């Protein structure tokens, strides 16, 4: 699904030099390397404050803590996303309220958001899933009307642009009260381990978030608020400073790859290709297709068969995500029983992601798509035979 080695080899001398500089400086925790990266990312995002931390999950937790919510406050979150988004809500004693997503963009459904607002709603966390933004202009307007905060989960969409109706634009993660991201190795801007950051234009929130990430202290051994210990490692910061210079190139490579996939897979009946929302660019952390309904075919079983056939042909694939959050045992609630969020449940049985990364070549993509056609037809034939025999 990724080719991190080739990406590294292209910038090996810069990366190795950056790591060596950290070792020679002995600034292993915080220090100039972390400051340099924070300022560089702030300039890239055109945001006032970047607060680095240990990972993307910590970034979400610190952002929520900085907003000073109270136990029992409700936080609206899409049911179709990675578990980290809801995990921190529950850990902080808040109540997750699940909303459905749009079938085509995979991001938060605006109409379902409106239905789930109550007097206890204090926060919404739109997830910019797979590489494009949720509809932030509408979400921000609703938040302003009802008086709740916004944290953008930008772990999969760093560098994406949101286009407002007045022709202005902003980077993903800079529109709400906070944006958060992860630098996990699979992300578009990735380090060689764990790392994360949160960003904001609010001076007060930034100061509070910095304190929370540093044991609740502004001054050493003077702990004003309850905090945690979450720091971006200096070596990872140095690596990220190098890779940040190439992020626009990485984005263009992923967008080119997605466009080429579109051309190659466009004639395959039974598959829906990724949709680009008119209000957002797409940076393609994942290239995710949807298996359409087919008469007499169980989509989930068909997809599993298709994955096995792809594996035989040497092509990896992934399912993001095989079970929506409201049906996970840890987060199940009678408020959100099975069939209550139909699009999230439909997508969990229908989606399939195929390889996309910065090192894709025409030749490799042609090979992948040829294998996909073969695997798809083999799977379809097998299910048609089953249907024939059952009749």
TrEMBL record:
Source taxon at top rank: Bacteria
Gene source species: Ancylomarina longa
GO molecular function: pyridoxal phosphate binding; transaminase activity
Transmembrane segments: none
A Pfam family: DegT_DnrJ_EryC1
Record-annotated active site: 187 (proton acceptor)
Protein name per Swiss-Prot or TrEMBL: DegT/DnrJ/EryC1/StrS family aminotransferase
CDD domains assigned to the protein according to its UniProt record, in alphabetical order: AHBA_syn
Keywords: Aminotransferase, Pyridoxal phosphate, Transferase
Gene Ontology biological-process annotations: polysaccharide biosynthetic process
InterPro entries xrefs: DegT/StrS_aminotransferase (IPR000653), PyrdxlP-dep_Trfase (IPR015424), PyrdxlP-dep_Trfase_major (IPR015421), PyrdxlP-dep_Trfase_small (IPR015422)
Family designation: Belongs to the DegT/DnrJ/EryC1 family.
Entry-annotated residues carrying N6-(pyridoxal phosphate)lysine: 187
């Amino acid at each position: 699904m990724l080719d991190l080695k080739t990406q590294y080899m292209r910038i090996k001398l810069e990366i190795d030099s950056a790591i060596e500089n950290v070792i020679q400086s002995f600034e292993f925790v915080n220090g100039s390397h972390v400051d340099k990266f924070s300022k560089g990312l702030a300039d890239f995002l055109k945001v006032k404050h970047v607060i680095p931390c240990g990972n993307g999950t910590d970034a979400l937790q610190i952002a929520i803590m900085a907003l000073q919510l109270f136990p029992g406050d409700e936080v609206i979150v899409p049911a179709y996303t990675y578990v980290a988004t809801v995990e921190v809500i529950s850990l902080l004693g808040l109540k997750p309220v699940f909303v459905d997503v749009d079938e085509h963009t995979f991001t938060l459904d605006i109409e379902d958001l409106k239905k789930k607002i109550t007097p206890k709603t204090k926060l919404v966390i739109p997830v910019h899933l797979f590489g494009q933004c949720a509809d932030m202009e509408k979400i921000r307007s609703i938040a302003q009307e009802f008086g709740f905060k916004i944290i953008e989960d930008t772990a999969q969409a760093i560098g994406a642009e949101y286009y407002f109706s007045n022709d202005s634009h902003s980077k993903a993660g800079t529109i709400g009260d906070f944006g958060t991201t992860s630098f996990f190795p699979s992300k578009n801007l990735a380090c060689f381990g764990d790392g994360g950051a949160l960003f904001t234009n609010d001076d007060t929130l930034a100061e509070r978030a910095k304190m929370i990430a540093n044991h609740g202290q502004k001054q050493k051994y003077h702990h004003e608020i309850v905090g945690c210990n979450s720091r971006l490692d200096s070596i990872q910061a140095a690596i990220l400073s190098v890779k940040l210079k190439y992020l626009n190139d990485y984005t263009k490579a992923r967008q080119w790859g997605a466009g080429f996939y579109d051309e190659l897979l466009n004639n395959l009946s039974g598959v829906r290709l990724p949709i680009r929302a008119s209000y957002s660019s797409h940076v393609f952390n994942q290239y995710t297709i949807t298996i359409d309904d087919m008469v007499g075919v169980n989509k989930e079983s068909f997809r599993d068969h298709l994955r096995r056939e792809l594996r035989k042909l040497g092509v990896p694939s992934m399912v993001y995500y095989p079970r929506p959050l409201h049906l996970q045992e840890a987060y199940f609630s009678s408020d959100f029983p099975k069939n209550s969020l139909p699009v999230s449940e439909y997508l969990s049985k229908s989606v399939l992601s195929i390889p996309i990364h910065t090192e894709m070549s025409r030749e490799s993509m042609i090979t992948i798509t040829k294998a996909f056609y073969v695997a798809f037809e083999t799977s379809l034939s097998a299910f048609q035979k089953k249907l024939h025999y059952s009749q």
